[in-house]
Design a protein that fits this description.
The chain is an alpha/beta fold and 402 residues long. The chain has 2 domains: 102 residues, Enolase-like, domain 1, CATH 3.30.390.10; 259 residues, TIM Barrel. Helices cover 35% and strands 18% of the residues. β1 and β2 form a beta hairpin. The longest helix has 21 residues. The termini are far apart. 51% of the residues are buried. The model has no long low-confidence stretch (mean pLDDT 97). The structure holds D-mannonic acid and magnesium ion (MG). D-mannonic acid binds next to loops. The site of magnesium ion has 5 residues, from loops.
Length: 402
């Protein structure tokens, strides 16, 4: 079998997605997600101009060799654009191989090592009563683990809280909006939120919280400590992770478990965090981290240190990435939890898929390959539109991490 052609499908069914379709000379095709939120066309150009020409005529079964060719062979390494492009190729090739062997992809990754995968939902509200209401709605849908975000009094737009009660979606069409942030107000508020939620839902529901890189290490340490009575499943992205030593400081002060990695694009971003046991959950994204080939290695390294996975699963990753995360997660031993932020009905229609949610768990389904296809006619009705993530400023106007 040979790779005969490859092309990109750009579409915007409620949000932008970049999808790579690789075709073989035997009629089998594979899909890979190449979406990098707010920078979509950079990855599209990288694939179109630099990667696709190198793929034609290669053996699609030689996944490791093609991965190394695109990584080492480029000379320039890492970065979200490069790694998302490599991931798109990698995932499409795994899809092809599993389809060719007529088996669900998880069987090529070791086979199922659990029946279902615990997932967490997103609850949010403009204030504490609103957040509690949202948590209860998710409990009614069977979720056993729930991330809770709430508006903070005196802060005009908190992370994870949508305008007008809609489902949270991180990108906005047009130019970036700006929001204001106050760490002081947030730090005083967050323990009150979790005290109220825990009181309302009891001890059996897992609660998670995303700090979205907004604190310094010592601020995150204070927050982790103040949240200990409410025993969170994790606090996510407590501080920017470029300086990995910051996590040592957090660890010295609190037993609240720590998750990070959604902006990492290489195993090397996580290496020190894992080998020093400064984190408990690795949240890398299949698409931005170099695909299944790269994430399987990162997960196996993490397993040695009892660090578990919590693959990023926001709506800016297409159903192709969600399927890839589910196939990998159901196979590896150190799976921890999977983020489940459902796509809009329209996005689900554009990407028909076999993965399913039931009673707090998801599974990838048993269709050969990834079990995801794309309705190109429908996709064609929703062309790409420029969109950005918001940027954040402190109350005095200083630009800060969103
Ligand atoms: C978030 C994301 O899912 C998460 O935990 O941090 O919503 C993140 O903001 C987006 O993926 C950014 O594109
Ligand atoms: Mg996050």
């Amino acid at each position: 079998m040979k790779i005969a052609s490859a092309r990109l499908i750009l579409c915007s069914p409620d949000r932008n997605f970049v999808t790579l379709r690789i075709e073989t000379d035997e009629g089998i095709y594979g899909l890979g997600d190449a979406t990098l939120n707010g920078r979509e066309l950079a990855v599209a150009a990288y694939l179109e101009e630099h990667v696709i020409p190198c793929l034609i005529g290669r053996d699609p079964f030689a996944i490791e060799d093609i991965w190394q060719y695109l990584y080492r062979g480029a000379y320039w390494r890492r970065g979200p654009v490069t790694m998302s492009a490599i991931a798109a190729v990698d995932v499409a090739l795994w899809d092809i191989k599993a389809k060719a062997l007529d088996t669900p992809l998880y069987n090529l990754l070791g086979g199922k090592s659990r029946q279902g995968m615990l997932v967490y939902a997103h609850a949010n509200g403009a204030d504490i009563p609103g957040a509690i209401e949202s948590v209860k709605r998710h409990i009614d849908q069977g979720y056993l683990a729930i991330r809770v975000q709430s508006g903070v009094p005196g802060v005009n737009a908190s992370y994870g809280v949508p305008k007008g009660g809609k489902a949270y979606e991180p990108a906005e069409r047009g130019l970036p909006s700006e929001s204001l942030w106050s760490t002081e107000r947030y730090l005083n508020f967050a323990p009150k939120l979790f005290e109220a939620v825990r009181m309302e839902v009891g001890e059996d529901i897992h609660l998670l919280h995303d700090l979205h890189h907004r604190l310094t290490p010592i601020e995150a340490a204070r927050l982790g400590k103040s949240l200990e009575p409410y025993h969170l499943f994790w606090m996510e992205d407590p501080t920017p992770a470029e300086n990995q030593d910051g996590f040592r400081l957090i660890r010295q002060h609190t037993t609240t478990p720590v998750a990070t990695g959604e902006v990492f694009n290489s195993f090397w971003d996580a290496h020190d965090l894992i080998r020093n046991q400064w984190i408990d959950y690795l949240r890398m994204t299949i698409v931005h981290g170099g695909g299944i080939t790269a994430l399987k290695k990162a997960a196996d390294f993490a397993a040695v240190y009892q660090v578990r996975t919590g693959f990023h699963g926001a709506t800016d990753l297409s159903p192709v990435t969600m399927a890839a995360a589910l196939h990998l997660g159901i196979a590896i031993h150190n799976f921890g939890i999977q983020e489940h932020m459902p796509h809009t009905p329209l996005a689900d229609q554009v990407f028909p898929h076999h993965y399913r949610y039931e009673g707090g768990y998801m599974d990838p389904g048993d269709a050969p390959g990834l079990g995801v296809s794309i309705d190109e006619d429908l996709a064609g009705q929703y062309p790409y539109q420029r969109a950005y993530l918001p940027v954040a400023r402190k109350l005095d106007g200083t630009l800060t991490d969103w």
